[in-house]
């Protein structure tokens, strides 16, 4: 085993802070006993705060994919049309899941270099005079590309088209790292997962549910049992679950929520934005290209970097892992071997970012990838400027 701590700089799972690992380490208790209700209620109430909603949140012991499925099966019926947007690999997987469920996804094609375009969504909805489209599904932070979709603008686009479709948003890699407001932005179902901005291991997923989505669930005819919201919401009122919950993960979740409250969500979001900006500055100083082309859609969660022509991103990642014990994200499906991804999400600070960028710069050198040295210095200069950090005023 290499000495020192492994650098887990993939865009999720993110580094799990010791505080959360210690919380998970407490003894498992009776999930139907009197002591459990407090754990369950704290987790459910805390998550409404993280999502920015006054409506219900359900928590599943599953990876994020389960919460994708739950959002669809609870609100839709066989053959329903759903408008989805090809922001990248994860939007494509959600579309494939919808197909397998017997839905009819209409896919707006994208080039994987920006978030969703609200105008394209509005135009497509305006064509749908019969209101056959029952939901618009968008990935907030597309983890395969590092592009963020403008959710509030997409809500406005749906309203401008006068269309009644539900708005469903995947925040699996954005919640707890990027600004997100379920109620204020008029989202009907928000999907999320534990292993990224929430700083937990993989294993919990979430749906935040609007009143309109709850009403839709009463008419929805896709088959469901384990994922059924109505099955959950009754026991949840008192802090219990209809089956055995992931007790120790809920301890960890309550600790994560406490950490987010202590730092303050706006400070968490600002920290990620700074780290995203410093990473992009380093990438440009190396003479490499950021995959996201739209500056309004840049991500504070991760930065995907385009490899110079003729060089393998996977070979570079393998060298970086071997020489510096750091895992970087790989290029997925359409961009396999063409990009690598630097995760700067979750429990992360300036020095962790400097070390991460140093690992990338040394890996580029060791793998013989053409680049200009000095990206780390540029990031350090940027991170250190008081005007950028707001620290001078603090
Ligand atoms: N959606 C996004 C944006 C993701 O980043 C991921 C996983 O990385 C998923 C969905 C799938 O979630 P999971 O792998 O937890 O099932």
UniProtKB/TrEMBL annotation:
Cofactor dependency: pyridoxal 5'-phosphate
Amino acids binding substrate: 341
Residues bearing the modification N6-(pyridoxal phosphate)lysine: 196
Gene3D superfamilies, alphabetized: Aspartate Aminotransferase, domain 1, Type I PLP-dependent aspartate aminotransferase-like (Major domain)
Domain Aminotransferase class V: 56-320
Keywords: Pyridoxal phosphate, Pyruvate
InterPro entries, alphabetized: Aminotrans_V_dom (IPR000192), PyrdxlP-dep_Trfase (IPR015424), PyrdxlP-dep_Trfase_major (IPR015421), PyrdxlP-dep_Trfase_small (IPR015422), SP_NH2Trfase/AEP_transaminase (IPR024169)
Molecular function GO terms recorded: alanine-glyoxylate transaminase activity; L-serine-pyruvate transaminase activity
Residue ranges the record marks as coiled coil: none
Single GO biological process annotation from the record: glycine biosynthetic process, by transamination of glyoxylate
Family: Belongs to the class-V pyridoxal-phosphate-dependent aminotransferase family.
Protein's name in the database: Alanine-glyoxylate transaminase/serine-glyoxylate transaminase/serine-pyruvate transaminase
């Amino acid at each position: 085993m290499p000495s020192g701590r492994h650098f887990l700089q993939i865009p999720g799972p993110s580094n799990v802070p010791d505080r959360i690992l210690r919380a998970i380490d407490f003894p498992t208790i009776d999930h139907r006993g009197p002591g459990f209700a407090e754990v369950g209620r704290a987790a459910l109430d805390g998550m409404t705060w993280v999502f920015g909603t006054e409506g219900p949140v359900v928590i599943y012991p599953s990876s994020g994919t389960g919460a994708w499925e739950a959002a669809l099966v609870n609100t839709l019926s066989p053959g329903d049309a759903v408008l989805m947007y090809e922001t990248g690999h994860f939007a494509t997987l959600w579309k494939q899941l919808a197909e397998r469920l017997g839905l009819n996804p209409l896919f707006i094609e994208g080039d994987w270099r920006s978030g969703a375009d609200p105008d394209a969504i509005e135009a497509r909805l305006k064509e749908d005079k019969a209101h056959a489209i029952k939901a618009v599904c968008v990935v907030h932070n597309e983890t395969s590309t590092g592009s963020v979709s403008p959710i509030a603008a997409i809500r406005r686009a749906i309203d401008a088209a006068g269309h009644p479709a539900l708005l469903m948003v995947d925040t699996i890699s954005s919640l707890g790292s990027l600004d997100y407001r379920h109620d204020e932005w008029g989202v009907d179902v928000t999907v999320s997962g534990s292993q990224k901005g929430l700083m937990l291991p993989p294993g919990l997923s979430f749906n935040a549910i609007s009143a309109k989505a709850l009403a839709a669930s009463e008419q929805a005819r896709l088959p469901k049992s384990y994922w059924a919201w109505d099955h959950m919401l009754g026991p949840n009122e008192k802090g219990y679950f209809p089956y055995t919950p992931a007790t120790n993960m809920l301890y960890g979740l309550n600790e994560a929520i406490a950490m987010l409250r202590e730092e303050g969500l706006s400070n968490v979001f600002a920290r990620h934005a700074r780290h995203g900006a410093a990473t992009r500055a380093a990438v440009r100083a190396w003479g490499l290209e950021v995959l996201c082309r739209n500056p309004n859609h840049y991500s504070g969660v991760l930065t995907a970097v385009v490899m110079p022509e003729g060089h393998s991103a996977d070979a570079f990642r393998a060298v970086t892992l071997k020489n510096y014990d750091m895992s970087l994200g790989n290029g997925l499906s359409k961009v396999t071997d063409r990009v690598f991804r630097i995760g700067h999400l979750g429990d992360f600070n300036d020095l962790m970012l400097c070390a991460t960028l140093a690992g990338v710069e040394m890996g580029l050198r060791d793998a013989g990838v053409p680049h200009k040295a000095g990206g780390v210095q540029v990031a350090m200069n940027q991170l250190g400027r008081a005007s950028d950090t707001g620290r001078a005023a603090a």
